[in-house]
Amino acid sequence: MKWNSIRTKLIVFMLLATILPIVLTMFITYSYTTQSLRTRVAQEDANLLYQGGRNLSSLLDDLNRSSSSVYSISNLLHAGYEDVQNNSQVYAVLSSISRSVPDIFQVYLYENTSRKATLVTLNTPQRNYNIAPFSDTLGSGQHSVWVQESHMSHTYGLTSLQPKYPSEPVFTLHRKIEKVPSSDIIGYLSIDVKLSALSDIVDQLYEQNREKIYILDDNGNIIYSDAQNMLGLPLREQWYTDQIARSPNSSGNFEQDGNVFVYQRISSIATRWTLVKQVPVSYLTLEANRAAFINILVLAVSLIIIVAATVIISLRITAPIKRLGRYMDQIQSGNLNVDIQPAGHDEIGAVMLRFRGMMDTINNLILREYRLELANKTNQLKALQAQINPHFLNNTLQIIGTLALELNVPRIYALLSALAKMMHYSMHNDDKTVTLRDELEHVKAYIELQKERFENRFIFRYDVEEQLLDLPMPKMILQPIVENYFKHGLERSAVNGEITLLAIASAEGGAEITVQNNGNQIPQPRLLQLQRKLTQWPPPGSHPLDTGQDAERPSIGLANVLARLKLFSGGMASLNIGNLHPTGVKITLHIAEKDITESEDH
């Protein structure tokens, strides 16, 4: 292969541009992924342990509230009792406590006054008289409510009775029953809770067989763990004694001995526990290692595909480029009608299609400008033919008006002045753009003549917002619209005709001009035809002022107004027509803000 060939350069460049970024990306991704996994797991586990701690705290609070219901029989415990009714009341309270939490195994009550012990195991009562309180319930140095670490359940010294239920691993909440308001102890209450109450909460916090979880008390004794043989024993692991036990924080995480540890302290009125989760780092990086192996396989396959694709692409790119160069040479020589054939459906083919479209657009623009220039020349010729010495006629009208004043006929003078204004406004063909103020004055002069023609059988009202008077627009826009009323709407016998012109600023920032009257309505079929053709005017592919379309125009006057507005504003104008009820017609012109800006540029 030659080094100067495109094929060789593409192969070498694409191999280097592919292998180096992929290898570097794999290394960075692996490092970042492992680190982000550790951080994410620590954050997620912290949130998880926080929620688990709240659930454990709620469990302990529920047990504490249940145990406090024993104070409802404190008077009986202080005074002692031996009758059946009081025995039943005590049993009812203990039975209620045993059912308050689903995993309570048994409830033990000792009464100091009567030296009587009662044990309710799974709703089965047992009782012994004249015995000492069980040693575990005394809790020397403990608070009035405290929790004993996990242990196997027992019968609390009721040795004369045979246990009816096998021993269960439990933790116990102990309460010293005091004679309120003094601190004299009148009895002891102990509630054994199965460890299943903890496992129901803890099992949702970790993945068994891969992670470990511990619940520890203030002394480091294990309240709950996967290893049943460690329950109740102190935890001597260095990560606990050096990190968690000495930490003043209520929560945190750290990495040690190839494990990530996350802990959350649980504070309750009964005790203070610590929830610890141990996650092996090898488990965290398992997915990252698997992803790295997959990336290596993908890299090998990619190299094979890239080499093959590079050779194919180098061959496919050069031929269309050369063909496109030949097309450009022909266009440069002056041939704008080159038949450009697409090279395919890829990017090069898309470029050639767009190049062909660009050339079609250029040819169409040239043709459009030519036709527009031809139409302008034709209109100028017609205007010259129509002007039979307009200055002479204007001067003649002024002479006749002066004579009318001399003969004391001011009405004739007013009509001649209005006609002179209209002629003066019409014959200045160089003024392509006028203002709404000019158009309004022209309409007023036209109305003045129509009032004399129809003997004041109609009234004319107008309301134009002050800021719109300087709005630029093409000449002779409003007068053809007003003229429709006198051609089609005004009845010969009507004496109460009315025509109104309103101009307001629209909500979109443009202007809305409305001309409405109370004359005859447009027949519905004709109205629908007008609305449809005005919406579609001018037809696609035709010039707006193309005189060859007269047979299809919706209305010569309205079509001329709409076409000139669209040419003036770049196609952003609209004209709507509709009937009013019970009589009348309403025509609305809308000129958007863009139209105003563009027309100012003219």
Number of helices: 16
Number of strands: 18
Average of per-residue pLDDT values: 80
Structural class: alpha+beta
Q: Rg, please?
A: 50 Å
Strand order of the largest sheet: 3-2-1-6-5-4
| Major sheet details | 6 strands, antiparallel
Binned, the helix content reads 40-55%
Q: List low-pLDDT spans.
A: 547-554, 594-602
What is the rounded distance between the termini?
61 Å
What shape does the CA trace take?
elongated
Strand content: 15-25%
Task: Note down, in words, how this protein is organized.
By secondary structure, this protein is α+β, with helices and mostly antiparallel strands. 49% of the residues lie in helices and 21% in strands. It is built from 16 helices and 18 strands. It has helices spanning 6-68, 74-79, 84-100, 135-138, 196-202, 238-244, 281-284, 286-332, 347-386, 390-406, 410-427, 436-453, 478-489, 524-535, 556-569, 593-601; strands spanning 104-111, 116-121, 124-129, 145-152, 169-178, 185-194, 212-216, 222-225, 251-256, 259-267, 272-280, 433-435, 458-464, 472-474, 497-505, 511-517, 573-579, 585-591. It has a 6-stranded antiparallel sheet with strand order 3-2-1-6-5-4. It has a 5-stranded antiparallel sheet with strand order 8-7-11-10-9, sandwiched between helices. A 5-stranded mixed sheet has the order 13-15-16-18-17. A hairpin with a 5-residue loop joins strand 17 and strand 18. Helix 10 (390-406) runs antiparallel to helix 11 (410-427) and helix 11 (410-427) packs across helix 12 (436-453). The longest helix is centred in the first third of the chain and has 63 residues, at 6-68. The protein starts with 5 loop residues before the first helix and ends with a helix. It comes from Paenibacillus zeirhizosphaerae. Keywords: ATP-binding, Cell membrane, Kinase, Membrane, Nucleotide-binding, Phosphoprotein, Transferase, Transmembrane, Transmembrane helix, Two-component regulatory system.
